[in-house]
Amino acid sequence: MARQAAHARIAGPAVLLSIGQVLARLTPEFPDLTSSKLRFLEERGLISPARTASGYRKFSSTDLERLRVILGMQRDHYLPLKVIRGYLAELDAGLSPSLPGSATHAGPSMLPAGRRFKKPDLLREAGATPMLLQDAISSSVIVPAEVYGEETLGVLKALVELQHCGIEPRHLRGFRAAAERELGLIESALVPIARRKDVSSRAQAADLAREIAGQLEVVRSSLIRSALGRLAP
């Protein structure tokens, strides 16, 4: 991705988007996105929109796709910005880095945005019945929505496999309670930052929350693997 273009002054009638237009296009997919978040991502060096002679930010179609990648990696993989920035730097250098936290490789171009599914498409992709999805929603394992993402698809596929072993969504109600307890830990850790009311601090808190969630996942996975070891004959 050419940095020169990102920093260039706008000299002609190129089709570029204002912050408001970017929000209009992305907030249906990323409801938490705000103009403050866009400015924060720029401050952290993840995006570099062009500027008009008056200093207004303008975003190209390439900037828009880059934002989809950043926001998707945060939402779907809970990755901190420093990890995302490193991944994007390798892409900008013409490399083909692996997606952090995944065994798959991204292509030489920008990682495509995660797929979105209406309910019928979600059920078809997961091989699930409407009853299983409804049970998962009733048990608070899946949050109801008009459109679902890749993460929900992964959960529903797992529920299909668990059902084959006799494990139903109702057996997993404790998972929601455990998630709420972890959220309490994260909120406690963010108290010093949350006391500061400026925009930058709020964005920093969101990034730190994702990083803490990732570290908690490491600990949880280790505990489960240790417990499984005790089951071995």
Report on the structure:
By secondary structure, the chain is mainly alpha-helical. Among the domains are: 10-92, Multidrug-efflux Transporter Regulator, Chain: A, Domain 2 (Orthogonal Bundle), CATH 1.10.1660; 115-172, Orthogonal Bundle (Multidrug-efflux Transporter Regulator, Chain: A, Domain 2). 59% of the residues lie in helices and 2% in strands. The chain is built from 11 helices and 2 strands. It has helices at residues 3-7, 19-26, 35-43, 61-77, 81-92, 119-126, 130-138, 150-164, 173-189, 191-194, 199-231; strands at 50-51, 57-58. A two-stranded antiparallel ribbon has the order 1-2. A hairpin with a 5-residue loop joins strand 1 (50-51) and strand 2 (57-58). Helix 6 (119-126) packs across helix 8. The model is unreliable at 1-12 and 103-113 (pLDDT under 50).
Summarize the structure.
The protein is mainly α and 233 residues long.
SS-based structural class? mainly alpha
The percent range for helix content is 55-70%
Main β-sheet, in a few words? 2 strands, antiparallel
Rounded to the nearest angstrom, the distance between the terminal CA atoms is 53 Å
- Secondary structure tally: strands: 2
Shape: globular
CATH level-1 class of the domain at 10-92: Mainly Alpha
Overall pLDDT metric: 81
Strand content bin: under 5%
- Name the strands of the widest sheet in spatial order: 1-2
Radius of gyration: 20 Å
Q: Supply the CATH architecture of the domain at 10-92.
A: Orthogonal Bundle
**Contiguous uncertain segments of 5+ residues:** 1-12, 103-113
Helix and strand run: HHHEEHHHHHHHH
Total helical elements = 11
CATH level 3 topology of the domain at 10-92: Multidrug-efflux Transporter Regulator, Chain: A, Domain 2
